[in-house]
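Exam review. A common question shows you a sequence with its structure tokens and asks you to describe the fold in words. Practice with the pair below. Do the first one on your own.
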Amino acid sequence: MHKRLESDADLFIAALSQTPVSVLQTDAEGVYCEVDRGIIEKFTNKSVRLSTIMDEIAYYYRDDGTIFRVETN
């Protein structure tokens, strides 16, 4: 099961608990696909900074249709 992170509180809890977050964006056909995964290091009302599983830093905009989600039990 997955939980979509939509509010600042959702993102804050995921960052604080260092829960791995999946990042999904649409492909050329409009289908959502996972493009990255990592731990939220910082977020603003416009973007999310992620430390990825490849030990890189990635930035994603929150208002361009990007979905952030976590796995729940």
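Now try the second one, then compare your answer with the model answer below.
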Amino acid sequence: MANKNLLTSEKELKKIGLRLKSLRKSKGYTSPDTFSYENNLNRSQYGKYEAGSANITIGTLINILNCFGVSLSEFFNEDYEDLGNE
């Protein structure tokens, strides 16, 4: 019997993408293109991160979170845990 609490990369990538999108919108960026351009990030790759369709390294995630002024612990808080459970 499989443990329902095990991480799956697909599910976690989607949750990371949803959380990035939420942070971007909370900072007033309506477009991922504008956010990535203004923060000197690769537009295409950042869009894939938000869509949850590309693997993201911890280093890249930290660089993006620095643009938001958010730490890893703030990113992976209870809001993160609740994503995808609706």
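Model answer, second protein: The chain has a mean pLDDT of 90. The CA atoms of residues 45 and 54 lie 8 Å apart. Full marks require stating both points clearly.
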